């Protein structure tokens, strides 16, 4: 996108917010960089140059615009639409892997050498993994400076900086303001509750929240998830401790209230919440393709901007998918709630009724099969999945290889097409995952005169957005997953 100069210029001149996060505009005369929709008068085209990432613009010596705050724009949809090396690397960087494990740890997770990762990421993003992680640390620092009253030394450590001096230098370089000056610009009163932050998560319009929040609430596990005061709330398992998030659909953004036991988890928590709600999607591209289909066209027109509800933890959803095999939604929730009570990590939730973090694979490894109230075949399926997750053979995390993960799942006992594709859609985040054997999808297709074979053939025209087509097909049924819960 950033290499198409004329198209970028037109987007900037039109202040088109659909392109925020796709590219960044650097102004040669002022040495600042902006998002496409910056409200200031656009510079002359000869004074514009474009970068694929904020980190690349920073590396080139440009500072962030104080008006449009380009670091707070939605992420590029490219990284959640693809499964290649660079896309996987970007998802892992957003999840905090470079900060916790360094570039060598990132390369190990990807299965490539450090040199290969550096070369591929720089070729596409204009900056290496360290610079991308640095840009993310700067954004986290700004959020902490502006939304909390933490001392600056605590902000520096929580944002992932190795020293206060590096923190000060980075903030001045990126924002052209010292940390103290940045805090002085804030008109709102920072949160005083320890570990609690109130944020806004941006997205590209349109967004249809009904199925997104309806699905999460209708399938929610008691004690782990709830709907309270018009917000979806859930517990989070994060690298440095547990957290609780409340996500509320607002006009133009998602309200996000985070309570963290360790503020070093802020950027990771934000990344996982954005992934959960599919906030970095490009709904215009998705809707344009699906609306051209005579079957889906009226559904897309009635509800533009549908997102795919995903997950904050790939392993958790895989376990829940197995628990949901061939049973009702209510039964699946009951099975999951029993696991949570027996093996989950307790949490304190002063604002609601959340009680536990969903147990990880390690906590489930020693489970007694006789304690599971389910058929013997499903017990075997669950235990096989847990063993594969704990032994490291199956990666369902943000940087996973989608095809390899599918192959490993298919090799496990009890994993048929529905379970594999459900996990591909929700855990892996594959936008082209498709569930032709799902009951709701089959019922909707039958109403349109499509049998199983005809549905699979017809769905070829929905690629690469078949997961979004599934959301529209599900919406034809009368089920709580399609409705925004009452406040």
TrEMBL record:
<dbReference type="InterPro" id="IPR023170">
    <property type="entry name" value="HhH_base_excis_C"/>
</dbReference>
<dbReference type="InterPro" id="IPR018060">
    <property type="entry name" value="HTH_AraC"/>
</dbReference>
<dbReference type="InterPro" id="IPR004026">
    <property type="entry name" value="Ada_DNA_repair_Zn-bd"/>
</dbReference>
<protein>
    <recommendedName>
        <fullName>DNA-3-methyladenine glycosylase II</fullName>
        <ecNumber>3.2.2.21</ecNumber>
    </recommendedName>
</protein>
<dbReference type="InterPro" id="IPR051912">
    <property type="entry name" value="Alkylbase_DNA_Glycosylase/TA"/>
</dbReference>
<dbReference type="GO" id="GO:0032259">
    <property type="term" value="P:methylation"/>
</dbReference>
<dbReference type="InterPro" id="IPR035451">
    <property type="entry name" value="Ada-like_dom_sf"/>
</dbReference>
<keyword id="KW-0862">Zinc</keyword>
<keyword id="KW-0808">Transferase</keyword>
<keyword id="KW-0805">Transcription regulation</keyword>
<dbReference type="GO" id="GO:0006307">
    <property type="term" value="P:DNA alkylation repair"/>
</dbReference>
<dbReference type="InterPro" id="IPR010316">
    <property type="entry name" value="AlkA_N"/>
</dbReference>
<dbReference type="Pfam" id="PF02805">
    <property type="entry name" value="Ada_Zn_binding"/>
</dbReference>
<keyword id="KW-0234">DNA repair</keyword>
<dbReference type="GO" id="GO:0006285">
    <property type="term" value="P:base-excision repair, AP site formation"/>
</dbReference>
<dbReference type="Pfam" id="PF06029">
    <property type="entry name" value="AlkA_N"/>
</dbReference>
<dbReference type="InterPro" id="IPR003265">
    <property type="entry name" value="HhH-GPD_domain"/>
</dbReference>
<dbReference type="GO" id="GO:0043565">
    <property type="term" value="F:sequence-specific DNA binding"/>
</dbReference>
<dbReference type="GO" id="GO:0008270">
    <property type="term" value="F:zinc ion binding"/>
</dbReference>
<dbReference type="GO" id="GO:0032993">
    <property type="term" value="C:protein-DNA complex"/>
</dbReference>
<dbReference type="GO" id="GO:0005737">
    <property type="term" value="C:cytoplasm"/>
</dbReference>
<dbReference type="InterPro" id="IPR018062">
    <property type="entry name" value="HTH_AraC-typ_CS"/>
</dbReference>
<keyword id="KW-0479">Metal-binding</keyword>
<keyword id="KW-0227">DNA damage</keyword>
<dbReference type="GO" id="GO:0032131">
    <property type="term" value="F:alkylated DNA binding"/>
</dbReference>
<dbReference type="GO" id="GO:0008725">
    <property type="term" value="F:DNA-3-methyladenine glycosylase activity"/>
</dbReference>
<dbReference type="InterPro" id="IPR037046">
    <property type="entry name" value="AlkA_N_sf"/>
</dbReference>
<keyword id="KW-0238">DNA-binding</keyword>
<dbReference type="GO" id="GO:0003700">
    <property type="term" value="F:DNA-binding transcription factor activity"/>
</dbReference>
<dbReference type="InterPro" id="IPR009057">
    <property type="entry name" value="Homeodomain-like_sf"/>
</dbReference>
<feature type="domain" description="HTH araC/xylS-type">
    <location>
        <begin position="87"/>
        <end position="185"/>
    </location>
</feature>
<dbReference type="GO" id="GO:0008168">
    <property type="term" value="F:methyltransferase activity"/>
</dbReference>
<dbReference type="InterPro" id="IPR011257">
    <property type="entry name" value="DNA_glycosylase"/>
</dbReference>
<dbReference type="GO" id="GO:0043916">
    <property type="term" value="F:DNA-7-methylguanine glycosylase activity"/>
</dbReference>
<keyword id="KW-0010">Activator</keyword>
<keyword id="KW-0489">Methyltransferase</keyword>
<keyword id="KW-0804">Transcription</keyword>
<dbReference type="Pfam" id="PF12833">
    <property type="entry name" value="HTH_18"/>
</dbReference>
């Amino acid at each position: 996108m950033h290499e198409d100069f004329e198209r970028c210029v037109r987007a900037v001149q039109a202040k088109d917010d659909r392109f925020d996060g796709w590219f960044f505009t650097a102004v040669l005369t002022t040495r600042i960089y902006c998002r496409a929709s910056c409200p200031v008068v656009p510079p002359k085209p000869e004074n514009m140059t474009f970068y694929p990432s904020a980190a690349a613009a920073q590396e080139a010596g440009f500072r962030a615009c104080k008006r449009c705050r380009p670091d707070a724009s939605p992420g590029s949809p490219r990284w959640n639409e693809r499964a290649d090396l660079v896309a996987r690397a970007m998802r892992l960087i957003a999840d905090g892997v470079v900060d916790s494990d360094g570039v060598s740890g990132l390369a190990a997770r990807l299965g490539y050498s450090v040199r290969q990762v550096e070369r591929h990421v720089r070729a596409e993003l204009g900056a290496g993994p360290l610079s991308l992680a640095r840009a993310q640390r700067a954004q986290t620092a700004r959020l902490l400076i502006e939304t909390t009253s933490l001392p600056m030394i605590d902000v520096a450590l929580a944002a992932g900086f190795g020293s206060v001096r590096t923190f000060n230098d980075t903030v001045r370089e990126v924002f052209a303001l010292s940390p103290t000056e940045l805090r002085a610009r804030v008109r709102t009163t920072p949160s005083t509750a320890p570990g609690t932050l109130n944020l806004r998560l941006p997205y590209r319009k349109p967004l249809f929240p009904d199925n997104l929040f309806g699905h999460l609430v209708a399938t929610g596990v008691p004690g782990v998830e709830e709907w309270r005061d018009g917000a979806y709330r859930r517990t989070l398992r994060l690298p440095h401790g547990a957290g609780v998030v409340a996500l509320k659909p607002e006009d133009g953004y998602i309200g996000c209230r985070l309570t963290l036991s360790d503020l070093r988890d802020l950027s990771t928590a934000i990344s996982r919440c954005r992934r959960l709600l599919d906030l970095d999607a490009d709904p215009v591209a998705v809707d344009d393709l699906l609306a051209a289909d005579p079957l889906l066209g009226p559904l897309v027109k009635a509800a533009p901007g549908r997102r795919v509800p995903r997950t904050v933890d790939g392993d958790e959803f895989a376990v829940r998918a197995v628990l949901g095999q061939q049973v009702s939604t209510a039964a699946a929730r009951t099975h999951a709630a029993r696991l949570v009570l027996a093996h989950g990590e307790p949490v304190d939730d002063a604002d609601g009724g959340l009680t536990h973090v969903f147990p990880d694979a390690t906590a489930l490894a020693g489970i007694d099969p006789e304690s599971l109230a389910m058929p013997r075949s499903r017990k075997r399926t669950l235990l096989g999945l847990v063993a594969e997750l704990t032994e490291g053979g199956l990666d369902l995390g943000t940087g996973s290889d989608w095809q390899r993960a599918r192959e490993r799942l298919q090799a496990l006992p009890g994993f048929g097409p529905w379970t594999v594709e459900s996990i591909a859609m929700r855990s892996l985040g594959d936008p082209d995952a498709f569930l032709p054997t799902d009951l709701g999808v089959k019922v909707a297709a039958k109403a349109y005169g499509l049998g199983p074979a005809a549905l699979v053939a017809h769905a070829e025209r929905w690629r690469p957005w078949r997961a979004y087509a599934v959301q529209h097909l599900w919406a034809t049924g009368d089920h709580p997953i399609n409705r925004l819960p009452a406040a």
